[in-house]
Design goal:
664 residues; alpha+beta; 4-stranded mixed beta sheet
C-alpha cells in the first residue's frame, strides 16, 4: 500500500489505522481488527466521505480561481498536501509548566537552556533574554534603535548613518565595553545573572548592582547625540560610506573608546574627536580587531582604564599605542605589502581612499574631487569610477595573467570621457594626449596623489605595481598625518622603527601584527616541566614573522603584558646563564626552520622591572620559510604567517597563492 497513513483520533483507542492512496480516490482498511468488527466499516466510510468531500470542495474552488481545470498531477500534489496538514493533529508539542511563583532568573535560565537545544543561540541572545525578564523596556529601546537605523522612511532624528546597519549584538558589545570594560559577552551574561566573577558567588543584590551599571551604559550608547558625534570622527578620518568599511567591529569598539573618553575623562571634545579619528584610522588599517578581537579590546580597555578620569593620560595611552603600531617599518614595509593584492575590499585600499579625501585629491585627468566620488548619496557614471591604468586588453596582449589585472596598484579614480577609445593602448600611447590637457602643476599634484612613479608609462607592469604600492603607502602616511594638521593637533614622532622602541613601550602597546608575547620558550607553566610543544610555539612565531613583515618576539612576558622573566626557562639548563639560552635558541631555530636566520634575527636580553626578558627581533625573509611540525623527524614543510596578532598556518592553494603574491 502506498501513500500517507491517516489515523483518525476518534479511533485511536481501538488501534484502527486507515491508509489512503496518493490520489485519495480509494482507501483500504489495514487493521485486521476492523475486519473482525464489520460494524466499524460504516463509521470509517462516513469519516472518509466527509474528508474526501471537503477536499473536492477545496479543489473545485481552487480550479475556479485559476480559471482552468487541474491536471491529475496537480490534483495528486494538492491532495497529498492536504493529508500532511491533516496529520498536524497528531504532532506532539512538548510543554513545560512553570510555577507562577518561580524566580525570574529561573525563568530566564529555563528559556536559555530550552532554546539552546533547538536554534543555537549566541551570547547576545542570552543577554537579551535576561533583559526581557529584568529590564524589558531596555530591550525594546535596543530593538527600536537598530530598527530605526535601517528604516529609510524614518522622520526626525534617528541612528541611520552611511557606515553601518547596527545589530542588537553590535550595540550590546558597545554597552558591555562601556559598562564593564569587557569584550567577551559570555562574561557580561554572567555579570547580569548576578555572578561575582572573583568569588563565583551569585546573588540578587549583585545582579541588581550590575544591571544598574548596564542600564546607565546603554543610555549613553543609544543616545543619538553621542552616536552621531562619534560618527563624525570617521568622517574626520577620511571615511565616507560603508563600502570603505571592512570591519564593523572596529567601528563599534572605537565607539566604546569615544564613550569612555567623553563620559569618564575630562578630555575636551575637540581633542577627543581627533584622537578617535586617528585611532579608527589606525585600528581599521592595521586590522587591529581581526583575530581574537574581544581579547584585544579588553587589553585596550585595561590600558585606558589606568588613566582614570585624567583626559591627558587617556589621550597619551591611545597615542602611545598608535605610535607603536604605525612605525616607520609599518609605513615602508607592511603597508606596501598589504597593498599588493587584488581584493576588492581591503583595509589598506580603504586607507588610501580615505587619504585621498583628507588630501583633497582630484580624480586623475579631471577637476572632480575624490571626496565627491565617494559621497554615499551619489552613484557616479562608469567614466568616474576606478579604472585600470594599464588597460586589461593591453595586459592580455602582453601575456599578463588575468588574475593580476585588477591589482589595487593598477586601479585609480579616473575622469576620462574617452575611456572607450583607449582600448588596448599602453600607458605610453594614451598618456601624452590626456596629460597635455591639464596644467603642469595640476598634473604634478595628481601624479603625486595617485602615486604614479616618475616615467611610469614606460615601466613594465610588475615594476610599476611594486613602485606604485610604495608610493601609495607614502600617500596614506601623509593622509593620516593630515588628520592632525587639519585640526592643529600636536602629534608624536613616528620616525622610530619598532626595533628602537623600549621594551616597556612595546609591552604597553600589546600584541600586534609585529609583536608577540610568550611566557616561556622551554618550560610549560601548566605542566610544570620542559615541553617540546612550548619550544615549537617559538619556532612557528619566528617562522610567521619571517614570512610576513618581520616583528619582535618577547619571551618572559605573558599574554596580558605581565613581565614573568626567564627564571623558569633558565632553570632547565645545566648552566643557568643567558649565553647558553641564546645558543640554544639559535640552534633550535636553525634546526627547525628551512632557512638560516643569520642576518635576519637579533637576540637581546633587556631588563624590565628587575627581570630579564628575551627580545628576538626578526626581519622579513626574502623567500618562503618553512618549519618542522610539532613532533617527529618530519620534513620542514609547515608554513606559518602573521595574521593580525596571531600566527596562522596556511595550507594548499592558500599557501601557494600567498607565496606567489608575496615573492612573485
Amino acid at each position: 500500500m502506498s501513500g500517507n497513513p491517516v489515523l483518525d483520533k476518534n479511533f485511536q483507542h481501538r488501534k484502527i489505522r486507515v491508509a489512503f492512496s496518493p490520489t485519495l480516490e480509494k482507501f483500504e482498511v489495514t487493521n485486521a481488527a476492523i475486519q473482525k468488527n464489520p460494524e466499524y466499516i460504516h463509521d470509517i466510510a462516513k469519516i472518509w466521505d466527509d474528508f474526501f468531500h471537503a477536499q473536492n470542495k477545496f479543489l473545485t474552488k481552487l480550479s475556479h480561481s485559476l480559471n482552468r481545470e487541474l491536471s491529475k498531477e496537480e490534483t495528486s500534489i494538492y491532495r497529498n498536501r492536504i493529508i500532511k496538514v491533516n496529520e498536524l493533529q497528531k504532532f506532539d508539542f512538548q510543554v513545560i509548566e512553570i510555577n507562577a511563583q518561580a524566580d525570574p532568573a529561573v525563568v530566564a535560565e529555563i528559556f536559555v537552556r530550552t532554546n539552546s537545544k533547538g536554534v543555537v543561540l549566541n551570547q547576545s541572545d542570552f543577554i537579551l533574554t535576561l533583559m526581557s525578564v529584568f529590564w524589558d523596556k531596555g530591550r525594546r529601546e535596543l530593538e527600536d534603535f537598530c530598527r530605526q537605523a535601517t528604516d529609510p522612511r524614518g522622520k526626525g532624528p534617528s541612528p541611520r548613518n552611511p557606515f553601518i546597519d547596527p545589530s542588537q549584538t553590535h550595540m550590546l558589545r558597545a554597552v558591555a565595553g562601556l559598562a564593564f570594560r569587557r569584550g567577551r559577552l559570555e562574561m557580561v551574561h554572567s555579570l547580569l545573572g548576578g555572578k561575582n566573577l572573583d568569588t563565583g558567588e551569585v546573588s540578587e543584590e549583585i545582579r541588581e548592582k550590575h544591571f544598574d551599571i548596564f542600564v546607565r551604559a546603554q543610555e549613553e550608547v543609544l543616545d543619538l547625540t553621542n552616536w552621531h558625534e562619534f560618527l563624525k570622527c570617521l568622517t574626520m578620518a577620511g571615511f565616507r560610506y560603508r563600502r570603505m568599511l571592512t570591519s564593523e567591529l572596529t567601528l563599534i569598539y572605537s565607539y566604546v573608546l569615544w564613550l569612555i573618553g567623553m563620559r569618564d575623562t575630562d578630555l575636551d571634545k575637540k581633542s577627543l574627536q581627533v584622537l578617535i579619528a586617528r585611532w579608527f584610522f589606525m585600528a581599521h588599517t592595521t586590522r587591529r580587531y581581526t583575530g581574537s578581537p574581544e581579547t584585544r579590546l579588553e587589553a585596550d580597555l585595561a590600558r585606558v582604564s589606568e588613566a582614570g578620569s585624567d583626559g591627558k593620560a587617556f589621550l597619551n595611552k591611545l597615542n602611545q599605542i598608535i605610535d607603536l603600531e604605525l612605525t616607520n617599518d609599518y609605513w615602508t614595509i607592511t603597508l606596501p605589502n598589504d597593498l599588493n593584492t587584488t581584493a576588492t575590499k581591503s583595509p589598506a585600499l580603504s586607507a588610501y581612499w580615505a587619504s585621498l579625501v583628507l588630501l583633497d585629491a582630484q580624480a586623475l585627468f579631471g577637476n572632480l574631487h575624490v571626496r565627491d566620488l565617494l559621497n554615499p548619496t551619489i552613484t557616479p557614471p562608469r567614466s568616474l569610477e576606478r579604472h585600470h591604468l594599464f588597460p586589461k586588453a593591453y595586459l592580455s596582449s602582453i601575456g599578463v595573467r588575468q588574475k593580476q589585472w585588477n591589482a589595487i596598484a593598477n586601479m585609480s579614480f579616473v575622469d576620462w570621457p574617452e575611456n572607450a577609445s583607449i582600448g588596448s593602448k599602453s600607458p605610453a600611447e594614451y598618456l601624452p594626449s590626456l596629460k597635455n590637457r591639464i596644467p603642469s602643476k595640476q598634473w604634478e599634484q595628481q601624479a603625486y596623489h595617485h602615486a604614479l612613479p616618475f616615467g611610469w608609462e614606460q615601466l613594465d607592469y610588475h615594476s610599476f605595481l611594486e613602485k606604485r604600492q610604495k608610493l601609495m603607502a607614502k600617500v596614506v602616511r601623509e593622509g593620516f598625518s593630515r588628520i592632525d594638521q587639519i585640526f592643529n593637533y600636536s602629534i608624536p614622532n613616528y620616525d622610530k622603527t619598532i626595533s628602537e622602541r623600549s621594551v616597556g613601550d612595546l609591552i604597553e602597546a600589546g600584541e600586534s601584527q609585529t609583536l608577540e608575547f610568550k611566557s616561556t620558550a622551554r618550560y610549560n607553566l601548566k605542566a610544570a616541566r620542559p615541553d617540546k610543544r612550548t619550544e615549537h610555539a617559538i619556532v612557528k612565531t619566528v617562522c610567521g614573522f619571517l614570512n610576513s613583515d618581520g616583528g619582535i618576539l618577547l619571551i618572559g612576558v605573558d599574554d596580558e603584558g605581565r613581565v614573568l622573566g626567564l627564571e623558569d626557562d633558565l632553570a632547565t639548563f645545566s648552566k643557568s646563564n643567558l649565553d647558553q639560552y641564546e645558543l640554544w635558541l639559535r640552534q633550535r631555530l636553525e634546526a627547525d626552520l628551512s632557512h638560516s636566520t643569520a642576518g635576519v634575527l637579533k637576540v637581546e636580553f633587556p631588563a624590565i622591572s628587575d627581570r630579564r626578558v628575551c627580545k628576538v627581533s626578526v626581519e622579513p625573509a626574502g623567500s618562503p620559510v618553512f618549519a618542522k611540525p610539532t613532533e617527529g623527524n618530519l620534513p620542514k614543510n609547515d608554513f606559518w604567517v602573521r595574521k593580525g596578532n596571531a600566527t596562522k598556518q596556511l595550507y594548499g592553494n592558500h599557501r601557494l597563492n600567498y607565496i606567489k603574491e608575496r615573492w612573485n
